[in-house]
Amino acid sequence: MNFILMRYAEILLTYAESKIELNEIDASVLNAINLVRRRAGQPDAVTGTQAQMRPLIRRERTVELAKEGFRWFDIDRWDISSIVMPQKVMGIAKDPAVVAAKPNFKLNTVHLNNIRTYAESESVRMVREIRYWYPKLNLLPVPQSERDINPALTQNPEW
Description:
With about 160 residues, this protein is an alpha+beta fold.
């Protein structure tokens, strides 16, 4: 039976991200990023400082690994959940005859590759859900079954 455990693009992007976070930016970092970009028909990225490369690699991971189950772990690892998660999730236009505005993109204090905002078209779009974020969600609870096995385990804060 053949099934994919890891895509090569994920390995390349993880390698590039780790080298960027260690501030060991060299030709291999740019090569890894550009291999993924070329496969997708995108122009090559150019090298820069750690501060310039961090948004690039985060954007590459977001678009290349979309719908593959990595986003939650990236958000958690980058410690940006309190910025990214609490927002309205907008849906389709309320009236098909009224074209909703395209999303605006805003920069945040932590550069997150321009988070979508639908403020201009909120009145003509359906709100699918409103998401909230609480600090306790940064750490999930330790399952009681695990605490029963090992009494030395303590519960995470606020759980």
